[in-house]
Amino acid sequence: MLRIFRHYIPLPTIVLSAVEVAFVFFTFYVFHLRSARHAASQHQNLYYSLGFAFSIFMMMVALGLYNRAIFGKHREMLIRIVLSFCFVLPIFIVAMGVIGHYIPWALPPSPETYLPGMLLGLISVTGTRFLILPMIDVGALKKRVLVIGVGELARRIERLVADNANRGFLVVDYIRFGSEAPCIAPRFFDEGRLPEGYPLAQFADEKLVDEIVIATRDRRGLPIDDLLDCKLKGITITEYLTFWERETGQIDLEALQPSWLFFSDGFRMNWFPNLIKRLFDIVVSLVFLSLTMPVMAMTALAIRLEGPGPIFYVQERVGLNGRRFPLMKFRSMSVNAETDGVPRWAAANDQRITRIGALIRKTRIDEIPQVINVLRGHMSFIGPRPERPFFVETLAKEIPYYNERHRVKPGISGWAQINYPYGASVEDARQKLTYDLYYVKNRSLFLDFVILLQTARVILWPEGVR
């Protein structure tokens, strides 16, 4: 994987996206080139083609077409590819009309030149996904990993591979040192001990190992000299928590040690990144507010017509450094939904939710007023979701490091929101915290932009909405 601004991106994903962008650019450029009469128009054609290819790429990212989980779902992948081009097409047509009206000398392409280019671009991307990818030996592109350990941490890696075969690594073997109790499958443990005096570096060479992962809690029996020999031969030595963070986009709470938090790269809270993030929040919020104003007006009218009660719902939430603030939402539940005064999570088919409320919760429209909270500085556009004080106090007692998510401002969308469905239990909160801590550790403007793009996927495919 490549680490870009502290966020891990699989190398095959980068290569695939580069190939698809090149195909889209080339097809658009060739068809538009036929209408280019002189050097100036050919030069402008280059910019139009780059702009179109980049727009398609951004839309494909937003619809989750570069997530590993989508590669095995052919029907859903095809639908999202077609939607990417369908969403970009009207935007591109409007943009070309504006350019032609206000900048005549810019010579925008005509539909008879760019529509065939778009169609061929769609065919090329689809062909890449369904014809070229299956012909590639994906296993040959994966990093070959040797795991040191056969206990609980090794079992988590084993389950990680079993749950998703599209991981970017291949475990070649598990090696046992010391007296660690075996937890992995017997077929691995039976072969999990090196012969006495057999060099680890030689074994790694025979297995063509690229990386060794230290996945054992008791490290007193580790062969330090052998590991150093492997390191000096160019084999990467990685600690379990770092490996897990890189491959899953989560931080494993069960294995987390304070020492790893102290010494690992991340958790930077400098004033300059905070200033840039604040500017990002203001710009995105103002643009988002201006675009959604008609939707907000229609939603307010629908809530008012459905029955008595306030249009907006204000609820106390916990924000940065544990400070409380009033969070604004469109009201989606009946008035006095908690008549007994006991806070509770929304459940599936919750009877407290109104008809309009069910619609706006499914489409996330109820969250739009939180843009006001962002402009007021209570929230960020991207960050961990803010919880109610009652739940925070309860979860902080049951889940270690839960309060660390309050080291940054809460957000309307976040890394946990695009990777995990709605949470309505302590276990759900524990799983979401693994993503929230990853965000707190690796937050950057680049990661915020990635989350912002993929929020569109969550809105269009709202799994787990309640």
Structure description:
This protein is of the alpha/beta class and 466 residues long. It has helices at 11-33, 39-62, 74-102, 111-135, 138-141, 152-163, 186-189, 200-206, 224-232, 240-248, 258-263, 271-306, 355-362, 370-376, 389-398, 415-419, 426-442, 445-460, and strands at residues 2-4, 7-9, 143-148, 169-175, 211-214, 236-239, 312-318, 324-330, 380-382, 411-413. The protein folds into 3 domains: 2-136, no CATH class; 139-248, 3-Layer(aba) Sandwich (Rossmann fold), CATH 3.40.50.720; 271-460, no CATH class. The chain is built from 18 helices and 10 strands. The strands form 4 sheets. Strands 4-3-5-6 form a 4-stranded parallel beta sheet, sandwiched between helices. Strands 1-2 form a two-stranded antiparallel sheet. Strands 7-8 form a two-stranded antiparallel ribbon. Helix 2 (39-62) packs antiparallel against helix 3 (74-102). The longest helix is centred in the middle third of the chain and has 36 residues, at 271-306. It is globular and about 75 Å long.
**N-to-C span:** 35 Å
pLDDT < 50 runs, ≥5 residues:
none
Q: What's the number of structural domains?
A: 3
Overall pLDDT, averaged? 84
Report the β-strand fraction as a percent range: 5-15%
How many beta-strand runs? 10
| CA radius of gyration | 26 Å
Helix content: 40-55%
User: Major sheet: size, sense and barrel closure?
Assistant: 4 strands, parallel
Question: Structural class, from secondary structure content?
Answer: alpha/beta
The shape, in one word, is globular
Number of H- or I-type helical stretches: 18
Spell the H/E element sequence.
EEHHHHHEHEHHEHEHHHEEHHEHEHHH
Write out the strand line-up for the largest beta sheet, numbering strands in chain order. 4-3-5-6
